[in-house]
């Protein structure tokens, strides 16, 4: 078997540089010499896709795996609140891949390209780099202002100076409690190992480190001077050998360093490939990239890759997709998709600003160098740019991917990048991604937000029953099959609020169960409605503004409004607003409420509590809103019909019983969908969105449900008022026993994710209707409250397991680590 020479051998032997650490370090890294007065050596990553062409799946996989480790470190809840920041230019693509692995995290990378009209939200210096100034140019500065963890990603963690400079600058502007530093390799010296912990103590925040490998570089005395001398010696030799040389393929294989030749004849232009890039989709993270935008990119990639594949020369065996400086992620994703659809070997790398010595030696990481002039009109003026390890690599085609700002005459000159590539491959393709420039933001927030939507134009409720602080997205296709949504949500590829499940259409047998359940539970619900409304009037406000959390809270809010009218002659305002787990409450809806009502009168309403995730979400969201807006008075305490999780003080009952409105979806909630929050549909000053399913009017029982419950108000009035008085005299401090039970169940069943455990009859029903269920836990002896659950479970092939001493009537377990391959195309659960 042929021995493979380590690509750091040449530098190690001549400079005495020693790489020590994890066994896999030499697989990840090689060594080269810099043309840099601050540092002699360069650690050359074999898996970054910058200097060394590599399989795009390998490049993407390393970044994504680091992101999954960050997600495990933070936990799902904190990961959902995180922001990922990558470093230009080398780690822009790596950081984006890490963000994909984290799951729901928006992404931003620093840049060395100023963009007119976009304000700088921060900046820092990278002391060892040849180009030090980094700018942060988010389209929405709020991206950096949240309280969630900030994840900083670089290709290597050497001295820690860059990271400390970044955190120091950002922490002064936007302080937070936690930072995570991510790198492919941790190469700190012994002297630098303690600096991160000391700095964390200094700023009063937690700082974690996640890397793929650990090691250090031992540098002998005088290494900088020796390295500079070696660079000078070999640069002189190579320039003499290669000046005025036009290489054919055979020469390229033997003469590995190719500098631009004077008076070289022109080269044929590259063939353009029209990608069909989605309109308005950012080309990367320079101004921010959201999970919703990633969904748009995922959907467009197959067609774009197909266009590239069609343009490749027939019989091509080796293809390079070559990105451009900071534009690393889009070419990488395109290359990875291309790798799936062509038989050719696909490799990926990018051009760079970094000047590195090239030497034709198998023990040296940079074998060849193409030199060409900058072609994006850089702010720091003209200069050389480089593509390494491309010449002589035997590529049958090179697909150069640049953004439109770099598609300039300089790209097409006889000594430009395309001509240099044409010297070394028979086919050069050019794909141009539109350079995203944020629209100039309005200097003022809109003075007026739209008025609430009301029925019958939006929802089947009467116009006075509820005003929806939402925007109508009825004409937008948002539905995705349950199995696809589940896989995307659990893989971190999408947030549940960025799409909608296909609405469940109940069978006649199920509809009959609903009517039976309504008949047997209407009086019980009416009493709980009365009790919670009386508590609100006694403790919260004599003239409350009911604000239900769409959509499960909306029927309860309507019923509470009806009770206040029936019992006290009050005509209470009632609105429905969107709250999204991991994203918070609709801030524009809060602004509207604050402009039209006293925030102290606002009472948030929901149907029931499970483990209390929305209770916590609302508390944090209100705190952030009031801090940012200077508005005070909102009380985040939710009033609910049922509180089996013991998460709130204001409730009608803490029993876990069947609330029939949980049995159905839109057809019991005014024909309104779940709320939608997706950046390409919901702007900064828009309400969250939802759909009105007018086409389901024939199955609508929304008003029937309200009328059936309200008909019992006279019968239960005395009992409800007595129950309210009893509750007023009771210690109702939340015990959060529901959360504790969920954590225990998550570990007992080896799920290890509380978000996949849905406690209570209502949440279990939602699992069966909207998610991919794994199994149902039912309290031993539970009766008719679970008839509809058993029927749905039977229809979906889900086992129902009876459990003694279950704190809830039932608990729904979502299929853990779900993929469609794990369950089959029908989405039925399987045992694991």
UniProtKB/TrEMBL annotation:
Residue stretches making up the PELOTA RNA-binding domain: 736-815
Positions of the UniProt region annotated as Disordered: 233-269
Domain Cysteine protease StiP N-terminal: 459-709
Annotated keywords: Glycosyltransferase, Transferase
Domain Orotate phosphoribosyltransferase-like positions: 28-215
Domain TRSP: residue ranges: 283-419
Keyword Glycosyltransferase: yes
Protein name: Phosphoribosyltransferase
């Amino acid at each position: 078997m042929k021995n493979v020479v380590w690509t750091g051998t040449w530098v190690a032997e001549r400079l005495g540089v020693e790489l020590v650490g994890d066994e896999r370090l030499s697989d990840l890294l090689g060594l080269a010499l810099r043309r840099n007065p601050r540092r002699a050596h360069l650690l050359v990553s074999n898996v970054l896709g910058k200097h060394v062409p590599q399989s795009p799946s390998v490049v993407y996989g390393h970044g994504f795996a680091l992101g999954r480790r960050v997600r495990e470190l933070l936990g799902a809840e904190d990961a959902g609140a995180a922001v990922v920041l990558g470093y230009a230019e080398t780690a822009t693509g790596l950081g984006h891949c890490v963000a994909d692995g984290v799951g729901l995290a928006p992404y931003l990378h620093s840049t060395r390209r100023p963009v007119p009209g976009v304000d700088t939200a921060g900046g820092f210096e990278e002391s060892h780099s040849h180009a030090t100034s980094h700018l942060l140019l988010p389209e929405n500065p709020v991206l950096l202002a949240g309280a969630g963890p900030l994840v900083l990603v670089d290709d290597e963690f050497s001295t820690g100076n860059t990271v400390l400079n970044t955190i120091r600058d950002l922490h002064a502007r936007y302080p937070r409690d936690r930072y995570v530093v991510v790198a492919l390799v941790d190469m700190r010296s012994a002297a630098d190992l303690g600096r991160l912990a000391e700095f964390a103590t200094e700023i009063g925040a937690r700082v974690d480190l996640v890397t793929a490998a650990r090691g250090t570089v031992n540098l002998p005395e005088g290494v900088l001077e020796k390295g500079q001398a070696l660079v000078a010696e070999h640069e002189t030799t190579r320039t003499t050998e290669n000046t005025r040389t036009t290489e054919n393929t055979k020469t390229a294989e033997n003469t590995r360093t190719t500098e631009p030749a004077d008076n070289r004849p022109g080269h044929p232009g590259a063939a353009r490939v029209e990608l069909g890039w989605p309109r308005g989709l950012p080309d990367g993270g320079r101004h921010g990239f959201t999970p919703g935008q990633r969904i748009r990119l995922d959907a467009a990639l197959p067609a774009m890759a197909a266009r590239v594949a069609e343009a490749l020369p027939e019989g091509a065996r080796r293809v390079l997709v070559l990105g451009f400086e900071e534009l690393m992620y889009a070419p990488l994703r395109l290359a990875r998709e291309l790798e799936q659809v062509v038989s050719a070997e696909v490799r990926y790398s990018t051009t760079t600003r970094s000047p590195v010595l090239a030497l034709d030696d198998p023990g040296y990481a940079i074998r060849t160098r193409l030199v060409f002039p900058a072609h994006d009109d850089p702010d720091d003026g003209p200069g050389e740019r480089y593509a390494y390890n491309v010449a002589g690599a035997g590529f049958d085609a090179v697909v150069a991917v640049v953004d439109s700002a770099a598609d300039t005459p300089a790209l097409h000159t006889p000594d430009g990048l395309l001509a240099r590539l044409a010297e070394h491959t028979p086919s050069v393709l050019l794909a141009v991604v539109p350079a995203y420039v944020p629209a100039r933001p309005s200097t003022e927030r809109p003075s007026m937000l739209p008025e609430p939507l009301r029925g019958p134009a939006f929802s089947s409720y009467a116009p006075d029953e509820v005003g929806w602080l939402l925007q109508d997205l009825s004409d937008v296709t948002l539905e995705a099959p349950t199995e696809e949504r589940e896989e995307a949500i659990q893989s971190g590829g999408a947030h549940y609020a960025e799409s909608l499940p296909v609405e469940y259409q109940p069978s006649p047998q199920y509809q009959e169960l609903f009517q039976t359940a309504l008949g047997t539970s209407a009086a019980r619900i009416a009493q709980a409605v009365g009790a919670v409304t009386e508590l609100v009037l006694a403790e919260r406000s004599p003239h409350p503004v009911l604000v239900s959390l769409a959509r499960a809270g909306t029927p309860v809010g309507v019923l509470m409004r009806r009770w206040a009218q029936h019992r006290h002659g009050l005509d209470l305002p009632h609105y429905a607003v969107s709250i999204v787990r991991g994203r918070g409450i609709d801030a524009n809806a809060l602004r509207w409420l604050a402009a039209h009502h006293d925030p102290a009168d606002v009472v948030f309403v929901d149907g029931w509590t499970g483990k209390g995730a929305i209770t916590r979400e609302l508390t944090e969201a209100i705190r952030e809103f009031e801090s940012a807006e200077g508005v005070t008075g909102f009380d985040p305490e939710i009033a609910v019909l049922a509180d089996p999780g013991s998460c709130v003080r204001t409730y009608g009952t803490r029993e876990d019983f069947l609330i029939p409105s949980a049995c159905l979806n839109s057809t019991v909630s005014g024909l309104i969908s779940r709320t939608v929050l997706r950046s390409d549909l919901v702007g900064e000053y828009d309400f969250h969105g939802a759909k009105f399913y007018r086409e389901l009017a024939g199955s609508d029982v929304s008003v029937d449900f309200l009328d059936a419950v309200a008909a019992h108000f006279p019968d239960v009035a005395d009992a409800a008022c007595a129950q309210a008085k009893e509750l007023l005299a009771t210690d109702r401090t939340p015990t959060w026993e529901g959360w504790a039970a969920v954590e225990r169940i998550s570990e007992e069943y080896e799920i290890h994710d509380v978000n996949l455990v849905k406690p209570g009859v209502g949440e279990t029903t939602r699992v069966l209707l909207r998610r991919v269920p794994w199994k149902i836990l039912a309290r031993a002896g539970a009766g008719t409250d679970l008839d509809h659950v058993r029927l749905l479970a039977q229809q979906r092939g889900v086992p129902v397991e009876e459990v003694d001493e279950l704190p809830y009537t039932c608990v729904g377990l979502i299929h853990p680590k779900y993929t469609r391959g794990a369950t089959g195309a029908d989405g039925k659960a399987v045992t694991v």
